[in-house]
Amino acid sequence: MKLRTKILWISCMALLAASLLGDVLILSITGKSLKNEATIRAYQNFYEMTGELEQGLLQKMDAEAKPLYLEHYFKKLKDDYSICFLRSGNTEEANGIRQIYNHTALSAEELSQLSFKNYEDGDITCADYSWGNTDYVVFHKNIQSEIDVYRVASMDEVQKNVRRLTGYVLAITFGVVGLTTGILFIILRHILQPLQELNETTKRLAEGNYDQRVTVRRKDEIGQLEESFNKMAEAVETSTRSLEESEKRKTLFMGNLTHELKTPMTAISGYAQTLLSTKLSRENQEAALLYIYEECGRLERLSKKMMKLLELDQEDSLVFTDTPVSRLFEAAEKSCDVILKDKQMTLECIEHGEHFPMDLDLMTDVLINLIDNGVKASDCGGKIVLRAYDNIIEVQDFGQGIPAEEQEKIMEPFYMVDKSRSRKSGGAGLGLALTALIAKRHNISIQIDSKEGNGTRIILQFV
Amino acid sequence: MSGKNRILIVEDEEAIAKMIAMNLEVSNYDTEIYYNGSEAEAALVQDHDYDLGLLDVMLPGKDGFELLGDMKKYDIPVIFLTAKDDLESKIQGLKGGAEDYIVKPFEILELLVRMEKILERTNKLSQTIKILNMEINFEEHSVKQNGQEVLLKPKEFELLCVLAKNKNIAISRENLLRMVWGIEYMGETRTVDVHVGQLRKKLGLSEHIKTISKMGYRFEE
Predict the structure, then answer these.
(1) H or E segment at A118?
(2) pLDDT tens readout for residues A333-343
(3) Nearest chain A CA: its distance from B215 CA (Å)
(4) Does one domain contain both A364 and A405?
(5) Average pLDDT over all residues of chain A
(6) Was domain B5-121 assigned CATH 3.30.420.40?
(7) Whole-model pTM?
(8) Which residues of A touch B107 (CB under 8 A)?
(9) Cβ–Cβ of B105/A294 closer than 8 Å?
């Protein structure tokens, strides 16, 4: 709003000043030329008049005839502007000057005080005189060195014209300036409107409403600014959201970790306390010791997995060697032998000599984790299928499956679909998180194809 | 009321559930364990004759907060025993009507004392304990040995009560001091030794009030 007012004021003032300057110039030039014209017209009149007088006077050489002629001439002329003096030897009149005709307010004395200048090249002189608000030009000619003829030309008309003209010009000037200002006001509002909108949006953005955007309506610089603003807002929103998300994930991870630590710690410290302070039977003492031992094992597994997660997160370069899938399957089968036998399950390996670049130990861990999950989800006597084809390795079980709404979350640390089941099997909920991280380091995308009650297929695709 | 108090334990961690049960049983409680919220809920319909429930919050099936409603329906006071130690959960638990909220890891003795307080409040604690050849009456503050009243000083009686109520569990001298004399009492642990000595002498319990090295005293039958 302020910028608009400022621009408006400055341009309005500049325009007004320029126009007024032009007006003054035009008016002074026009005024001068009008005055000149009027002067020339008056000069012509005077010239004709004096010419006529001279002509007439040529025949009247007689000293008595001259004044008579002059009186007669001027009476006939009968105007209010001419003055005629006759210089005679007669001293009756003041300074020996006799006033033949004078209908003006000017006396001989006043006339003699005017400074006459030559007009054109002839013997006619002229002087400027002003009385009241009106300017006059007084012409003078001396005829036969004894007759002084004056004629006063009023510039009243010229002045009136100039004044009228000034009025018009000023009216036009102010009109034009006013109109221009109005148009400028509208244009500025149109231009600055988006800036105001931009400002409002920025304020809202600063308050934390990161989904605020402006609508881009134009293709000029302001339109580009709006576009850039939207891009910036987009970037701010994305990075803020991802920061918030990672913060949330971290908090969740820490919360889960604490919980996972607390449970075995409660059991261990509880049993130790019980052993120390409570009178227990022999069997109960043994049971307590066994629980302590088991819970310690659980803590150890948890810390090992945590360490692995941390290592994997930090380790910047893994060495991948081209390994045949058969070796990977063998390694996994060997490690999972015990858990499979416990449930009388079989492992079926299908491969056609595929080989992928991988870290064998890490990939074995992945398969062990997936097989372990499969075994936990299956009933006794079922089977797990390891299959390799194209650029894909998949692990399939025929167990209870994963509900659709859980599928996204299972890769998160500490997430367990069936809490009691995983706990009983000693899981901490880190297996799939670890798997996801190893897969990420191998550039493997993980897809889950699962239906409740129909088993699960985990597809590892080398990208 | 006489006889053992019956306690319901709902806790998905087998190790912790068994540990609680082990300690409660030696302290003269009957226990029933469920590892799953929904199972506990189903079982409650059939059998809800419990004096107190110890519930975990994060349970498979039905969580502890949900289970609280069922417990209230059968008028069973509840203590939450959970790893969740955020204020919201505590408020939710206590506002929801639980008698107490204990955060894991916890001390067994603390659990026993809190349980005892709740049972006392809800009048589910028997007013007399018969132990060995003695009958302790809490209301009358009297001890009868073989039907003969034995005169004890007030602090001696209270000490006997604490030891008898938590029989088979060792209690440190500091805790005994706190439980019998109160937290404000700035006495020395020698006071406890002197009183224990008096009890042993007056009631002939030198065999039964055992000194457990580094742990304190334990009353054994």
Answers:
(1) strand A117-118
(2) 888 888 888 88
(3) 6
(4) yes
(5) 84
(6) no
(7) 0.55
(8) 273
(9) no
